Amino acid sequence: MGVLDIFFRRPAAVGDAAALADFIDQNAAFIAQKGIYEYARARAGHYAKVLFKEPEFRDACDVARWRAFPLGLAMLGEVVEGVLSPARAEQRPVQVDAIRTLTLGVFDRYPVPVALGAPAWHTLRGDLERNLQLVGLHPPKWAKDIPAPYAEKYFNLMPIHERLRRSEAPTIHNYLRVTMINIHDELSRRIDAAAVVQSLRGEAFRA
Prior knowledge:
Blueprint: H1 3-7, H2 17-44, H3 48-52, H4 55-84, H5 92-107, H6 118-134, H7 151-156, H8 162-165, H9 169-190, H10 193-206
């Protein structure tokens, strides 16, 4: 295989529950890290290099990143549910529960972050579980509408003083909206929906 073959190779298909869990994990981590770091760099401007060398600031970013991760997981779980939403309404509760279990499993891949500690990490898991349970209480949302309940919490995690970022919440919300649309489109292109649904049912049955 040549260099060009590697460069232009399509991303692997999402064909089972394990691949879907990896997709959720990677994209939730992307949301947690890129949004926070890029916002901080943009807000700091020419002082970004100096700021990111400060231990206190790096610690604040680490705390923000880990707190943002379960928000990303909640949004990703809802994106997945929208992509896989069954045609028959009576099948939806089982599928929502399977996606909730899978997404919580992604959270549980990670040990307790030193930056947070066990009590805070346990609380974040409980919040994630509740958010995923709410998915089945309303019709599937458009991807662009999924961030609405999470945007303010995500914005408040930014490691920049509140007075310096007060007017920029809509910018962060729009970033999340665009990101969710892009993730939805990527998953729709890569997923083998029938195979993934079958795999999720098998995982749920074994559980």
